[in-house]
Specification:
mainly alpha; 509 residues; single chain; 63% helix; 25 helices
Amino acid sequence: MAPPQRQRPPPIGAAGWYAATALAARGALALLGAGGPLLWRPEVSTPLNSLLGVREGLRLLRLGLSPYAGAAVHAPPLVLALHAATAAAPLLYALPTIAADAAAALAIWRLAGLLCRGRSAAEAGMLLSPAALAAAYLWNPLTIASCVAGATTPLENAAVAVALLGGAARNAPLAAAGVAAGAYVGLHPLLLALPICLMMGRGPEDVTCAAEAEAVAAAGPGSSSGGGRGGPAGRRAAPRPIGAGAAAPPFDRARCGAFCAFLVAWCAALLVLSDAYLRAHPQAQCLPRVARWLRGGGGGSSSSSSGGGGGSGGACWLRATHGFALAVEDYTPNVGLFWYFLTELFDAFRPFFKFVLHSHALILAAPLALRFPRRPLFVAWALLLVSAAVRPYPSAADAAPWLALAPAALAPQLRRLRAALFLANAFVLLTVLGPAMWHQWIVVDAANPNFFYSITLLLGVFHVVVLVAGVLLTVRVEREEAGKPLEPAGGGGSGGGGGGGKGGGREAE
């Protein structure tokens, strides 16, 4: 009886009209020519996601040339195919990105509905209703700017949302398709394979149980009295109302294995389709080079021709897209941490520091999954946040997935967040100071690159602060749900006996 109720789509209401208005606003801004200036903004367009590179690749294809023979095109072949009919049209170029944002909002709406588990948003303790969450994603200025600029980031964000929806629904083909499509466009969504494997094995965490525990605690006897706040009872959280001591469900290895198999199949299908699209340019195909390398013949010529963007043969498309992102060959200023740091290094030291910078996301994935094996949605949120911080060519729209996922997957943590106003103001301040420093440097010529890079460093610090706060709050929620003390016994007081009890009461608030 429960599954039919859970599968019922959440109501849309007025937020659905707000979402439709947001999509219409994107089309209106594109028609008015707002995308032209955004094509040159470092916060929106990068060498990897820019519409300019897509247009350049399509022009080369029309001329009968390989789009990856030079160093200007870094979009995958199927992205070129998706934009083939609209990229050059001044009124239609934003159609693929508008459709991608609509798909992302629909997936977020459905994901939030699944997390509500058949209840209303208020009953489930959600901060926003599913429709309001989808509308908030569409009205996010960062997603609007990226969509109107025609960047490929909305395609990646839509794939991420679909992957999370498939993971929450434990739909292996859908989740694998989302991860494969996201990795095809931007590579970093491949990190989501780990938390989605956890979702396939045990399902997503129940983000409504904390609200149930709070309701039980509020209805319990003596919960409203303040006399026990300083004592040990005041420093303990209310236990979970239902199933607190129940054993964890067994890990479904078959479902996890099916997800991995579908992921490999989808990646192979994308590789084959990409080579098929480039059948007129065999020098840009990847599978023939891999076959030659496996046979042991022509390996040297293949590696030499794919070592750079130029040459008579040019690079295969995989080397020109994901290989370009890993090699970090372009130091165009952006909102990331790579460009200025690598510019200041000697050539001999760059490979080592590129490896160090790239490894941050991989290093954090395993510890997060090991520490929070029953909270895969939180692990996915943390990895999205980390990947937005350590990408070699990030854009402002990379923050949209973790911002959209937080109100649904981290509702218990956000209800305990005390620095919400500070973090929100800091994020708004950084979004204002970044363009201001760029204007002072490039337009007015009254500053130097250090001014703009200082804002990108502060953005990196902001990501670290948010990640640490999320981890600490998640640990706190876990201890509260288990009924454990929020701090070690005897370690809460800094003064005498009365002061220590009062301080411990504040910690349990």
